[in-house]
Design goal:
This protein has ten helices and 14 strands. With 346 residues, it is of the alpha/beta class. Strand 5, helix 5 and strand 6 form a beta-alpha-beta unit.
Amino acid sequence: MQPYTDSRQQGLKSLVTGGAGFIGSHVVDELAAAGHEVVVLDDLSGGFADNVNSAAEFVEGSVTDDSLVEKLYARHKFDYVFHLAAYAAEGLSHFIRRFNYTNNLVGSVTLMNAAVRHGCRCFVFTSSIAVYGAGQVPMDESMTPEPEDPYGIAKYAVEMDLAAARRLFDLNYIVFRPHNVYGERQNLGDKYRNVIGIYMNSVMQGLPCTIFGDGKQTRAFTHIADIAPAIARSVTIPEASGQVFNIGADTPYSVAELAEMVQKAMGRQTGIRHLEARKEVLHAHSDHSKARRILGCAGAITLEQGLARMAEWAWRVGPRSSREFEGIEVERGLPSGWVKPECTKA
């Protein structure tokens, strides 16, 4: 999908948090192409400065920094806020609760407070299908969320607070619940999240693709080009105001199937290594009829096509070293593949 252009958007100012990251940088590209003046706020904990579109102003900092957030709002008088900054590691969130809630919930509230104070026209928030929890497939927006991990709990709390802010302060908002997004610019060196990036990074190093459990878990995998334009364009659609949208691919695949497909796309067979099963939702995929009806979007890129595009990019940029998360708060029950070497000593 090509970046959209709209003369009505020329000169509007948008803040994109997490704009140096994977999804955020693609949304920045779409907004810049449409004529927005874009400011990116990112602490580079998971993103890279060279991901940021050259037309955007880049500010290195955290959404939890109330003083910095206030200064940015006061200086730029943002029309729109696209809040994509988050530490999106569902499984790991059980073991980093304090970090999770500080970054994903308190940071979001910091941005919302400023949006209310400065009269932001619309606050666009990327939530997650993690809010649904287990046993609700296909997931649709009419279901009552029952998140099972701290990451999903934080995302749903922000959704509820946005609804409360709309009722009290008339803060306009749009919520997106994307899922299993992959593609160019994904952080290949993060071993805790983004399974396709993890697998491609492993294959490039000649390592097997690791699977927690039997690999029968199912997910629908979404190429970035099928969601970034819709997120950026949503603020131009009046019917989207105050709405929650599932957005992404329709067809679920098992993790075992995915591992084989990634190796085929990479043109290299490195095998599969099974690890002990971890606590996670076994089956997760969404209904996207609402997004198709109101936003006019539909997944156009098949998994095979998307993997081929990402594989070409991955080989071009090369493998990345996986970094250990340095702030593990609870080590009890930490999956074996995530245990640091010093944690395994007797």
